[in-house]
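Box 3.1 A note on notation
Throughout this textbook, protein chains are presented in two layers. The first layer is the amino acid sequence; the second is a token string describing backbone geometry. Keep the layers aligned when reading.
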Amino acid sequence: MKGEFIKLNLNLVRNLFSSIRKWTSPWYAAYAILGLVSAAIIPVLLPLMVTATSHNLSYVAWVMGIYNLGLLTSPLWGNLTDKKHKHRLLFFGGFVLLLAGLIVLPFAKRLLSWLIISFLLGTGTASVATVSTLFVVEFNPQNEWSSRIGWLQSFNGAGQTIGLLIAAVFSSSGLFNYGIWIGALFLLPAILLGHLGLPVKKSQTGIQHLIKDLDFRNLAKFGKIELIGGGLLRHSHHLNLSALRNIKKLLTTSFGLFILSWFISSFGVAAFFAYFPLAMKTAYFVPPGLTSLLYAAAGGIGIALYTGSTRLSENYGVVRIYKWGTFLRLLGFGALLFLIFLKLSIMPLIASLAFVLIILSWPILSVTGTTITAELTPVSEGEAMGLYNASGAVATVLGTFTGGPLIGIIGFGAIPILGVAGLGISLLLTLKIHLQTNKIKVESGLKVHT
């Protein structure tokens, strides 16, 4: 029995490395470092640094909101790459912008300088992320896109996990500036690694081809940790911001209701992901270092839920599983709200469990949300996914900016209030969708039965 177990694990490891060799390139390591810096070190240490320097909590909303706004420049870089074909310039230029921003960031002491640097950090991240995806699309066959981009995102998630561990060390010691400079040091090998295996041949395939033809449902199944800030980094290559103008026409459909529910839930949780190191420390007495460790651990455990969510959707229906994921996240925020009003001696323990629950719910929401979008859309799947990602991205930026003033007025209790309200409304809208549609069952062909 023991021998069979060892053999099974050896086969799994062998298959894993075989997949990595088949679907990745050496420059993916640079994208992993991007995750380490932009999805962990910056979102964890930047809010702590700003608060420690300014002693003004509302500044965090502005700084992190502007950072997320910089990530929304992704369509600009995609269109610029299509027109000018300056892939390498935008790829390495994004890394250089990040490097310069992180070097000068600890020297900044005023809000205006933080805002400028944060926006440049966001735009640099968006440039690298967008062009990285285009490197995959423009130089590989279409039937390999989802596997290669999926592994690209998994590398990013692995980098994020390492970055969270690094952030845990520096957030615990209070050496926020040094942690940010360590992030800058990591970008140096990223620039060197980015040269390894990077395509040089020009291609006419562009961002619009990607949006139209990428298999988003297959891509959603690849394991990855939820990105701090609403996942804007991973969504950067298929945002359809212009389509938001037409959402009013779709609100009478089940698809439109789902996009609205996704927008509201993303808006509700945005302040949490902007403030979580500070909120967990100040309101729930959980040290920032422990919070980062919990994030990394929960994200790693949650990777297994990507496959599990797909199987549960096949057995019980995708909308039902999406409701379960929303309810789990709502339960986490509900516990945080409960603790605001009732101070318990075991508050740090309950808050930590609630935090883990919030993170673990993400794989369920990610897989099922993507599938529901693809199945309910009355427009093309690519257009629908662009709309789905854009709604979440815009809601994240708006929710981040909204959180600051509310926290200034009523304190950190605003965070779970926003979360419970947003997720509660989203859950009610999802229940309405379930009533409007007949059973949705995911089969091998992923078809909707009406």
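The chain has two domains: 1-239, 245-450. The two ends are 46 Å apart (CA to CA).
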